[in-house]
Amino acid sequence: MDLASIYYLGVTILLFLVFAAIVARTYSKKHKASGEEPKYRMMNDDHPEENGKGGRDVRRK
Amino acid sequence: MNQQEGYADDVVKGFITWSMVWGLVAVLVGVLISFQIAFPQLNLPPYLTYGRLRPIHTNAGIFGWGIGSFMAFFYYITQRLTRTGIWSPGLARVQLWLFNLAIALAAVTLALGMNRSKEYAELEWPVASLVVVVWVIFAINIVMTIVKRREEQMYISLWYILATLVGVAVLYLVNNASIPVSLTKSYSAYAGANDANVQWWYGHNAVAMVLTTPPLAIFYYFLPKATGVPIYSHRMGVIAFWSLIFMYLWTGAHHLLWAPVPDWVQTLAMAFSVMLIAPSWAAVFNGYFSMNGQWHQMRENYLVKFLIFGITFYGAQTLQGPSQSIRTFSAFIHFTDWVPGHVHMGTLGWVSLVLFAAIYYTLPRIYGTEIYSIRLANVHFWLVLTGQLMFSISMWIAGVQQAAMLNATNPDGSLHYSFMETMIEIYPYWHIRALGGVVYLAGLCVFLYNIWKTVAGAKTQGAAQPA
């Protein structure tokens, strides 16, 4: 097996592991409630939370 | 008063209006070219020939109607799912004007014969560069709106929106890499089999990132809104999204089976195409399971009819597509009328039915009124459904017959039928296709009339209100 084949195989395995991690996290019991929460919250999104445009970056909490 | 005050919806109105204009152009030109195929004497050179009009039809349909609507609904959906206004409404207005300029320039230059001769990437470099500017503005505005969101968790539609923005940008830039030799002529940066491979990596993933992920974003948002019941499983939506993204970008070379590209590339494309059934049907099941206890709405709620038939055509499309990627079946139906039958089930059935529902849902809300006529919306539904089925079924039958005749051989191995004999047998189906196009066009006219009366009624109501 040459270097290029090892590289391609490595990338493939890496991508598969990333996908498996996403599946494991999404379907873990710990994240069940939070994983389904957006489908309920989107049902009542016809009004912005505050008046005015813009907002804040929630990831900076 | 607009019940959704606080969101910047003027640009949504603008994109919806213009996408409907370009949609009408696409269907009108489509009907014309379907008649030109059935009656070749209708080709009037040099401008009104099938060769010039066909790319105008596809560009107006996919980019004018499709992308125009997606821009509208991405702005509509993103604002609501992030609970914040568009990052820059001014930039969105600039984008609307540049978008229309690009589509108008596309129509004019293609009619004049300026064409890169690449499927779905026909635009010459000045117009293609303008498209890049439009997309960059669009992406910045949506991404910044999401960055400044007030909802911590992102609903599944937002993932599909982000994937579309990134996917289209990468595909378009790579496939449009070219060397200009004048203002109206350029040559591809790639050559031979590499050019073909890049082109079909783009060509098929334009289907992925323009005609699959955006309608899914819209479907996942508007089905719960229309039924009043949340989708069956958000987590299933997330997993389906990631598996779709991981797999779709490898499938383009299934357009090059039996072509001189490496065998492993063809096999990889075929394998990933078949695996794509799983994430595609996860979305279909998510839609169907969301209807548990709600199936009565198929009779009572015209929006649900559009959405559920739309996802059903998506399901049919995503069974046909993978099966067509298998070598033996591909060899049978490639270069036959089966292919336009397949493609139009996707565009007229899946994409357009979902967009019709989204427009019916959205416009009355942002104009603060009611739909003019639900009865007319039902007439519209049955006309476009009939037209699409006439088109697709006639082409499927024509394709199988064509393939059977083209593959028939005599005992000595020579072809049993001449090419002309196969053509003559297909004419009745071409007549049915043209008629199907007329029926679909009639449905579209009913839709436009209904929308026009809805908007006109809203303006009248607004004017009649005391100051």
UniProtKB/TrEMBL annotation, chain A:
Membrane-spanning segments: 6-24
Biased composition (Basic and acidic residues): 33-61
Region (Disordered): 28-61
Sorted UniProt keywords: Membrane, Transmembrane, Transmembrane helix
Name of the protein this chain belongs to: CcoQ/FixQ family Cbb3-type cytochrome c oxidase assembly chaperone
UniProtKB/TrEMBL annotation, chain B:
Gene Ontology terms for molecular function: cytochrome-c oxidase activity; heme binding
Domain Cytochrome oxidase subunit I profile: 15-467
Any one GO biological process: oxidative phosphorylation
InterPro entries, sorted: Cyt_c_oxase-like_su1_dom, Cyt_c_oxase-like_su1_sf, Cyt_C_Oxase_1, Cyt_c_Oxase_su1_BS
One GO CC annotation: membrane
Family to which this protein belongs: Belongs to the heme-copper respiratory oxidase family.
Protein name: Cytochrome c oxidase, cbb3-type, subunit I
Species the sequence originates in: Citrifermentans bemidjiense (strain ATCC BAA-1014 / DSM 16622 / JCM 12645 / Bem) (Geobacter bemidjiensis)
